[in-house]
Design goal:
Structural class: alpha/beta
CATH topology of the largest domain: Rossmann fold
Number of strands: 18
Number of helices: 14
Helix content: 25-40%
Bound molecules: adenosine monophosphate
Distance between the termini: 7 Å
CATH class of the largest domain: Alpha Beta
CATH superfamily of the largest domain: Phosphoglycerate kinase, N-terminal domain
Number of domains: 2
Length: 417
């Protein structure tokens, strides 16, 4: 039975909370961006304010064994500062029974990196490259078998389970999904997860029409499933960024040196045909800002997007495209944005992406629901200072992308089950 943390009585209870504290660290192990920590604080504070104690668990990076570089001890002080209370540390997530048992209401214990153990992901490690299929199968069966004990140990620390790690919700790992089985009546989403799920539902289930999706970024191959799922949902589909050139070339356009994937051209044509069948309006770039050099100092010229000279490359959306897209955005009640429409890392090629951010902010102010999610568009709106001017900015790149593909996320399904 799914519960909500707002209606759960945490008094005297120990809550084990899966968070996403996979924060970037510099060479001195200092946190360079604490967004993910800040995002989990409301849920953690809610448990403490309700008279509960906390056992916090997370992964950090991709260690293949115990490796001090990936230790969560580097972030203890920061979490403590943000929570406003001391945080104890368990140096082995599988040997924290005594520390967990001793927790009093209001106290906090952070477990060491879950991924020090292969059982967290349930994938075998250290297999020889030339391992036979039999050996691979046996290794997988072994880690799956020991995973049960791993999960059971984590579950034994607590009375209830909260998942607030949207960033790993697309993984069926021990701490993100399997552990939920041990808390049939005491499992719930944290506030961050709740916010992300509502945002997904607002676009995929309850979208107000006209609904427009703006899909940009580099490659069609990485967004094919998103595009296909969007065709089932939207009225308008704006396809920008590098991936747009595969569509333009597939229709016979001259795209010069612009990024494209020849092998994806049949799928691009199929998407265009399906859109026509479904009455979905597709908006490709009509004009491109082009360069001959990938640098901020390089000369730029605007060409029709299907007439780019052989030695020029499209790196940003041109004014005519942006003007046409703005009209579509203005007339929409729901807008989803995934992926920049240009090489936004280079300021001179970031103008189109900035314009989209501005258009979305304006649409939001005029009452549209706007979601920015999945991958680099989040970095773009945040960097450009528009994060609080849209309805919701997702915190989970891969998880949001899979949700937009229409997949059920294991971390969500385990709580709902
Ligand atoms: P994605 O991770 O698929 O959302 O792609 C984001 C990346 O796409 C960013 O690093 C952008 O620089 C890149 N990108 C967007 N437009 C273009 C373009 N026209 N040419 C090359 N790369 C692009």
């Amino acid at each position: 039975m799914q519960q909500y943390i707002d209606s759960y009585d945490f008094a005297g209870k120990k809550a084990i909370v899966r968070v996403d504290f996979n924060v970037p660290l510099n060479e001195n192990f200092e946190i360079t961006d604490d967004t993910r920590i800040r995002a989990a604080i409301p849920t953690l504070k809610k448990v403490l304010a309700g008279g509960g104690s906390l056992i916090i668990m997370s992964h950090l990076g991709r260690p293949k064994k115990v490796d001090a570089k990936f230790s969560l001890k580097h972030i203890v002080a920061h979490v403590s500062e943000k929570l406003g209370t001391p945080v104890q540390f368990a140096e082995d997530c599988q040997k924290a029974q005594a520390q967990a048992a001793a927790l009093k209401p209001g106290e906090v214990l952070l477990l060491e990196n879950l991924r020090y153990y292969a059982e967290e992901e349930g994938k075998p490690r250290g297999l020889a490259e030339d391992a036979s299929d039999e050996e691979k199968k046996a290794a997988k069966a072994a880690v799956k078998a020991s995973q049960k004990e791993f999960v059971k140990t984590l579950a034994s620390y607590a009375d209830c389970y909260i998942n607030d790690a949207f960033g790993t919700a697309h993984r069926a790992h021990a701490s993100t999904a399997l552990i939920a089985d041990y808390f049939p009546n005491d499992k719930m989403f944290g506030y961050l997860m709740e916010g992300e799920i509502k945002a997904i539902d607002n676009v995929l289930k309850n979208a107000q029409h006209p609904f427009t999706a703006i899909i940009g970024g580099s490659k069609v191959s990485s967004k094919l499933a998103v595009l296909e799922n969007m065709l089932e949902k939207v009225d308008n589909l704006i396809i920008g960024g590098g991936m747009g050139y595969t569509f333009i070339k597939a229709q016979g356009g001259q795209i010069g040196l612009s990024l494209h994937e020849d092998e994806l051209m049949p799928q691009a044509l199929e998407i265009l045909a399906k859109a026509k069948e479904k009455g979905v309006h597709i908006y490709l770039s009509t004009e491109a800002v082009c360069t001959q050099e990938f640098s901020n100092e390089a000369e730029t010229k605007v060409f029709p997007a299907s007439e780019i000279p052989a030695d020029w490359e499209g790196v940003d959306a041109g004014p005519h495209s942006l003007g046409a897209w703005k009209k579509v955005i203005e007339s929409s009640k729901t807008i989803l944005w995934n992926g920049p429409v240009g090489v936004f890392e280079i300021p001179n090629f970031a103008k189109g992406t900035l314009r989209i951010a501005e258009d979305l902010a304006e649409a939001t102010a005029n009452g549209a629901y706007t979601l920015v999610g999945g991958g680099d568009s989040v970095a773009a709106v945040t960097k450009m200072g528009f994060a609080d001017k849209v309805s919701y900015v997702s915190t989970g790149g891969g998880a949001m992308l899979e949700a937009l593909e229409g997949k059920d996320l294991p971390g969500i399904a385990a709580i709902r089950a």
